[in-house]
Specification:
Helix content: 40-55%
Shape: elongated
Order of helices and strands: EEHHEEHHH
Strand order of the largest sheet: 1-2
Structural class: mainly alpha
């Protein structure tokens, strides 16, 4: 039995004419905001406010930089702007701390690990010892 293997799965489907769904949303949202800016702000200043909004919507819909959508570039720039940019490396000298030995630990043989009071832990430790033989 032969099966068709899907190809070009990274290409978005064209839904609204030559536009993908994402491009359509960017253009309608940008157009709506530009229209609101033009109607709410008087005459020439409304046009000046609507122009960058429409340009940004067009860039979101159609601009690709290094085959990546413009929204990814904006996200990366925003993440870079709010993240820390100062990386300081300071080598710290290792200090050896000597742990004082307890009286109980000195009397036990050194090849046995410390076993806790938990019964489940004791059983699991016993199984691990038996597996390693």
């Amino acid at each position: 039995m032969r099966y068709d293997v899907p190809q070009f799965i990274d290409v978005e489907d064209k839904i609204f004419g030559p536009l993908t769904f994402r491009q359509f949303i960017y253009l309608t949202g940008g157009g709506g905001l530009a229209f609101l800016a033009y109607k709410l702000i008087p005459s020439f200043f409304g046009f000046l406010a609507a122009l960058p909004i429409a340009g940004f919507a067009l860039a979101l819909a159609f601009v690709k930089i290094n085959e990546k959508p413009f929204i990814n570039i904006i996200e990366s720039a925003f993440t870079y702007a709010i993240s820390d940019k100062l990386y300081v490396w300071k080598q710290e000298k290792e200090t050896k701390k000597k742990v004082p030995a307890l009286a109980n630990e000195q009397s036990k043989p050194s090849h046995l690990p410390n076993i806790s009071e938990s019964k489940l832990h004791d059983i699991a430790w016993g199984l691990d010892v038996l597996d390693s033989r």
